[in-house]
What does this fold into?
Amino acid sequence: MTSLLSELVADHAALVASIPAFPEQPASARGWTLGGEHICHQADDLTIMVLDTLPGVLQPPHDHAMTAIIGVFQGQEDQRFYARSDTGVSLTRQRSLLPGDTIVLGENAIHAISAPADRPARAVHVYFGDIYAVDRSLFHPDTLQAHPYTGDRYDEFCRPDPDTATATG
It folds into this structure.
């Protein structure tokens, strides 16, 4: 699957041309505009989506409780990676994914994403399970303590990106 996604995003210009940008998404209850997601496939063993990430928001650390592969085809998706500790998680490294880049996240990986101030990110996210049916963790951005993942809590844990001028919330 990794090689297939790598082949797909290698021709990122073709993906940009064939996958229209999402219409502007309404702001969440707390004022965040995160982008949008389009589910291409959802089953018990596989979820595939196109995810748009807009500048202005630092999204919170979270896990997927399954292996995932991300392939960027437009913009830049900034990744922050964390390791579990006795008190929650701690930041271990960062990496920026550019068009054509792919990354594999193991089932225990914890990460957070954002987009730089000058451009949104668009990527194909592949999850080896039903991402909407699994118990996951979300980590408070200030305390880094674990909480059960919910969409409302995700929204609550987003923060304005100090490196962007377009943040809301």
The chain has one domain: 2-160. The radius of gyration is 15 Å. The chain is about 15% helix and 40% strand.
